[in-house]
Amino acid sequence: MFFHIILERNMQLHPRHFGPRLRDKLVSKLMKDVEGTCSGRHGFVVAIMGIEHVGKGLIRDGTGFVTFPVKYKCVVFRPFKGEILEAVVTMVNKMGFFAEAGPVQVFVSNHLIPDDMEFQSADTPNYTTSDNSVKIQKDSEVRLKIIGTRVDATEIFCIGTIKDDFLGVISDPGAAS
Amino acid sequence: MSGEEEENASELKLGEDFVKAKCLMNGEVAMILEHRLEQLQQVSDDPLNQMPQVFEKSLQYVKRFSRYKNPDAVRQVREILSRHELAEFELSVLGNLCPETVEEAIAMVPSLKDKGRDLDDEAIEKMLTDLALVKKFE
């Protein structure tokens, strides 16, 4: 889910930027430093929307750099356990498939794919029901439920399932042809 | 990490950082990110190149999965859903997934059926019909 939240960060600025455009410099540095980063706590920072508040700067001993506490509004993407969302399948193999929901990768193991879907190792590997009515392959759109998240320093991975009511394929790129 | 363990979106347990946060539907995120991209276009020829991959992926995702393309429709959807005393998270999930039946809506957002909520099947049905109407007249 995408959220609009307020975050805080201490920004260090070199004294050469002090002047009438100090605030602009602070904003552009903040965008450069923060946009595109990911933390386990707040998720992926997609875009900064504005500055809420810039606190009083504090001169660092020894270096002359000044630290400003900056509060800013931003759009983040944070997956939650139990959340249901839509995703695009990026890779299919016999272990299961990977899908992408915005910046986050979700893996759905073959144990969490309905039992009536079998793996087929054709040119485009896929999972298909015995009557061929439903097929999951690269670029399929699926609705899945996140059942677990794993967080490391700069990335969030999710484990998902499509083995539940109202989950599974919503559109299949091959169906039209 | 104890807070991490207790997280569960189906029970609306989002952790202290996110309970107060405003949730955004995919259509709203698309509006915000496209606006941002337009601003960048004025100063640069190839704005997408300057943005991190997270931005690009998010924009592609929300454009692909937004049920409502038109900004007015997105606003109407939020307006309709907010009449029903939903939590922010519930509102956004319903707006994103657009369930067609009451049963589906409850499967997507189990907390709709929590005890002590004044939301019967009829009210949910009415809400879904209103949403479908917005889509139809978009």
UniProtKB/TrEMBL annotation, chain A:
<dbReference type="GO" id="GO:0045948">
    <property type="term" value="P:positive regulation of translational initiation"/>
</dbReference>
<keyword id="KW-0804">Transcription</keyword>
<keyword id="KW-0539">Nucleus</keyword>
<dbReference type="InterPro" id="IPR045113">
    <property type="entry name" value="Rpb7-like"/>
</dbReference>
<dbReference type="InterPro" id="IPR003029">
    <property type="entry name" value="S1_domain"/>
</dbReference>
<protein>
    <recommendedName>
        <fullName>DNA-directed RNA polymerase subunit</fullName>
    </recommendedName>
</protein>
<dbReference type="GO" id="GO:0006367">
    <property type="term" value="P:transcription initiation at RNA polymerase II promoter"/>
</dbReference>
<dbReference type="GO" id="GO:0003697">
    <property type="term" value="F:single-stranded DNA binding"/>
</dbReference>
<dbReference type="GO" id="GO:0000956">
    <property type="term" value="P:nuclear-transcribed mRNA catabolic process"/>
</dbReference>
<dbReference type="InterPro" id="IPR012340">
    <property type="entry name" value="NA-bd_OB-fold"/>
</dbReference>
<dbReference type="GO" id="GO:0003727">
    <property type="term" value="F:single-stranded RNA binding"/>
</dbReference>
<feature type="domain" description="RNA polymerase Rpb7-like N-terminal">
    <location>
        <begin position="8"/>
        <end position="64"/>
    </location>
</feature>
<dbReference type="InterPro" id="IPR036898">
    <property type="entry name" value="RNA_pol_Rpb7-like_N_sf"/>
</dbReference>
<comment type="function">
    <text>DNA-dependent RNA polymerase which catalyzes the transcription of DNA into RNA using the four ribonucleoside triphosphates as substrates.</text>
</comment>
<dbReference type="GO" id="GO:0031369">
    <property type="term" value="F:translation initiation factor binding"/>
</dbReference>
<feature type="domain" description="S1 motif">
    <location>
        <begin position="79"/>
        <end position="156"/>
    </location>
</feature>
<comment type="similarity">
    <text>Belongs to the eukaryotic RPB7/RPC8 RNA polymerase subunit family.</text>
</comment>
<dbReference type="GO" id="GO:0060213">
    <property type="term" value="P:positive regulation of nuclear-transcribed mRNA poly(A) tail shortening"/>
</dbReference>
<dbReference type="GO" id="GO:0000932">
    <property type="term" value="C:P-body"/>
</dbReference>
<dbReference type="GO" id="GO:0005665">
    <property type="term" value="C:RNA polymerase II, core complex"/>
</dbReference>
<dbReference type="Pfam" id="PF00575">
    <property type="entry name" value="S1"/>
</dbReference>
<dbReference type="Pfam" id="PF03876">
    <property type="entry name" value="SHS2_Rpb7-N"/>
</dbReference>
Automatic annotation (TrEMBL), chain B:
<dbReference type="InterPro" id="IPR005574">
    <property type="entry name" value="Rpb4/RPC9"/>
</dbReference>
<dbReference type="GO" id="GO:0006367">
    <property type="term" value="P:transcription initiation at RNA polymerase II promoter"/>
</dbReference>
<dbReference type="GO" id="GO:0000166">
    <property type="term" value="F:nucleotide binding"/>
</dbReference>
<dbReference type="Pfam" id="PF03874">
    <property type="entry name" value="RNA_pol_Rpb4"/>
</dbReference>
<comment type="similarity">
    <text>Belongs to the eukaryotic RPB4 RNA polymerase subunit family.</text>
</comment>
<dbReference type="GO" id="GO:0005665">
    <property type="term" value="C:RNA polymerase II, core complex"/>
</dbReference>
<keyword id="KW-0804">Transcription</keyword>
<dbReference type="GO" id="GO:0031369">
    <property type="term" value="F:translation initiation factor binding"/>
</dbReference>
<dbReference type="InterPro" id="IPR045222">
    <property type="entry name" value="Rpb4-like"/>
</dbReference>
<dbReference type="InterPro" id="IPR006590">
    <property type="entry name" value="RNA_pol_Rpb4/RPC9_core"/>
</dbReference>
<dbReference type="InterPro" id="IPR010997">
    <property type="entry name" value="HRDC-like_sf"/>
</dbReference>
<dbReference type="InterPro" id="IPR038324">
    <property type="entry name" value="Rpb4/RPC9_sf"/>
</dbReference>
<keyword id="KW-0240">DNA-directed RNA polymerase</keyword>
<feature type="domain" description="RNA polymerase Rpb4/RPC9 core">
    <location>
        <begin position="16"/>
        <end position="138"/>
    </location>
</feature>
<keyword id="KW-0539">Nucleus</keyword>
<protein>
    <submittedName>
        <fullName>DNA-directed RNA polymerase II subunit 4</fullName>
    </submittedName>
</protein>
